[in-house]
């Protein structure tokens, strides 16, 4: 009996030992596989490089450049390009429906009719407010989109949506995506340029032209509204000429040697490329921004002879000169909250329109007469519109509205006329709604790009401008 027990114990030990030896490697393999699946995919650190050389898009492009005039704050659509007669009929009466307020503390239910008159212009009978007399002269070249929608009422989030694809900070701006995909024709100027207002940056500041997680080569370069237009571009007098040239040759040699030992370092590659571009820009940038080379007639067309329009007119004219020289994307910004008329709208809105109306119309006319409008998208608009009711009864204004607002585009394959509609009060887009991601997909299509295929791998995930949203190319917007 004792011997039998001993045999049983011995057999058990033998079985467990042998099983462990057989199952150990299998268990280890399973654990390693689970760990591998749990770990995020590492970013590509190989030899992939980036540059700004011009690239052929997969589809035939209709647009090759873009100028965006971003009216930060939210122009009031029912006072400019989307008239609503019922607001004047119900002026100062209680609004008969539901309103999505952003600032409930100052909210009012009283309807505010537009103080400004509208007329129809052009072959499409486009409605234009008396506040935009110059725009009325280019309506046959522009498409007024009355059904824009982001659905996020805060300025920052709606700016991110319109300019970066989603209402989230830190994503690449539209200009970064276009230059990442297409590069630039110019070897002596940046591919992507941001032009700021002398009275301050827009909401979100430099994030408006950020490259996000794209390589920094695709970040926007700022051209200032005053001279020097680009800071630190010109050397001090004692370093000018041969001294600087020798220094830059040595720096380039050291940088190249450093880069050869560190393949795949995208930030290093971008920095070297920017150093080399800065050297070429020392002449090209001054020439491109020198408005004395333009005729007096051109100056007058852009309003450079009038104090109200001079500053914005200069930026619009520089934008035309940049595109003419091969720059891919130029964006002009108005100052922080310039169109955010929560109060004092009766005086403030006319002043805002006076600043931009003549220069914006001149830009379209000038591009057209030079044969550039067909290939250049011109955009005008902000991140939101306004509500049909009063905010701040003591100093009448309008609150935010991102559920139905207006912008216009011209050239680059967009048709002219009007598109979409808001409800009878101008609150919600109810016909042919254009979400921000639909606008982006359509815009990329005009540049010969497929929105779902324009991607960049970041932290193991394929990222894109539309980012998985149900974006569609809106054929009704196209010529």
SSE diagram, text form:
Layout (H helix, E strand, L loop, with lengths): L1 H37 L26 E6 L6 H4 L4 H5 L17 E5 L6 E4 L4 E4 L12 E8 L5 H10 L9 H9 L9 E4 L25 E3 L18 H19 L5 H23 L7 H6 L8 H15 L4 E5 L11 H25 L6 E6 L3 E2 L2 E3 L8 E2 L3 E6 L6 E3 L1 E2 L6 E3 L2 E2 H11 L8 E4 L2 E4 L15
Parallel strand pairs: 1-8, 1-9, 5-14, 5-17, 6-7, 6-8
Antiparallel strand pairs: 2-11, 3-4, 5-13, 9-13, 10-12, 15-16, 18-19
Summarize the structure in words.
InterPro entries: Alkaline_phosphatase_core_sf (IPR017850), DUF1501 (IPR010869), TAT_signal (IPR006311). It comes from Rosistilla ulvae. This is Sulfatase. Strands 1, 5, 6, 7, 8, 9, 13, 14 and 17 form a nine-stranded mixed sheet that branches. A two-stranded antiparallel ribbon has the order 2-11. It has one domain: 3-Layer(aba) Sandwich (Alkaline Phosphatase, subunit A). Helix 9 (about 310-325) packs parallel to helix 10. The N and C termini lie far apart (about 100 Å). The protein has eleven helices and 19 strands. The chain has helices spanning about 1-40, 75-80, 85-90, 155-165, 175-180, 240-260, 265-290, 295-300, 310-325, 345-370, 435-445; strands at about 65-70, 105-110, 120, 125-130, 140-150, 190-195, 220-225, 330-335, 375-380, 385, 390, 400, 405-410, 415-420, 420, 430, 435, 455-460, 460-465. The longest helix is centred in the N-terminal third of the chain and has 37 residues, at about 1-40. The chain is of the alpha/beta class and about 475 residues long.
């Amino acid at each position: 009996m004792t011997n039998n027990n001993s045999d049983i114990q011995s057999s058990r030990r033998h079985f467990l030992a042998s099983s462990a030896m057989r199952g150990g490697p299998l268990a280890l393999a399973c654990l390693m596989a689970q760990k591998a699946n749990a770990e995020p995919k590492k970013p590509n650190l190989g030899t992939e490089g980036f540059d700004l050389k011009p690239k052929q898009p997969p589809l035939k492009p209709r647009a090759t450049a873009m100028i965006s005039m971003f009216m930060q704050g939210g122009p009031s659509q029912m006072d400019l390009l989307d008239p609503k007669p019922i607001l004047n009929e119900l002026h100062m009466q209680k609004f008969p429906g539901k309103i999505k307020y952003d600032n409930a503390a100052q909210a009012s239910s009283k309807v505010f009719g537009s103080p400004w008159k509208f007329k129809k212009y052009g072959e499409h009978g486009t409605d234009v407010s008396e506040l935009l007399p110059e725009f009325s002269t280019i309506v046959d070249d522009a498409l007024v989109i009355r059904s824009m929608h982001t659905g996020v009422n805060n300025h920052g989030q709606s700016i991110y949506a319109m300019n970066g694809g989603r209402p989230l900070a830190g994503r690449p701006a539209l200009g970064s995506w276009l230059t990442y995909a297409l590069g630039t024709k110019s070897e002596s100027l940046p591919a992507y340029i941001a032009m700021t207002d002398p009275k301050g940056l827009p909401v979100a500041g430099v994030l408006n032209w950020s490259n996000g997680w794209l390589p920094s080569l695709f970040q926007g370069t700022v051209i200032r509204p005053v001279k020097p237009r680009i800071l630190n571009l010109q050397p001090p007098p004692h370093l000018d000429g041969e001294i600087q040239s020798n220094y830059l040759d040595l720096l380039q040699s050291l940088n190249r040697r450093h880069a050869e030992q560190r393949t795949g370092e995208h930030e290093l590659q971008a920095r070297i490329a920017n150093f080399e571009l800065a050297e070429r820009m020392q002449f090209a940038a001054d020439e491109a921004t020198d408005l004395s080379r333009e005729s007096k007639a051109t100056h007058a067309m852009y309003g450079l002879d009038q104090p109200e329009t001079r500053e914005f007119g200069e930026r619009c004219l520089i934008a035309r000169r940049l595109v003419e020289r091969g720059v891919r994307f130029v964006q002009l910004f108005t100052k922080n909250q310039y169109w955010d008329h929560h109060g004092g709208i009766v005086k403030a809105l006319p002043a805002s329109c006076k600043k931009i109306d003549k220069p914006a119309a001149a830009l379209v006319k000038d591009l057209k007469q030079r044969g550039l409008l067909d290939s250049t998208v011109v955009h005008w608009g902000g991140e939101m519109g306004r509500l049909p009711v009063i905010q701040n009864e003591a100093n009448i204004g309008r609150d935010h509205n991102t559920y139905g607002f207006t912008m216009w585009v011209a050239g680059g394959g967009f048709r002219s006329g009007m598109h979409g509609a808001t409800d009878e009060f101008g609150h919600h887009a109810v016909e042919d709604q254009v979400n921000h991601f639909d606008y982006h997909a359509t815009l990329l299509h005009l540049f010969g790009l497929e929105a779902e295929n324009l991607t960049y791998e970041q932290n193991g995930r394929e990222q894109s401008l539309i980012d998985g949203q149900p974006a569609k190319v809106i054929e009704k917007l196209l010529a």
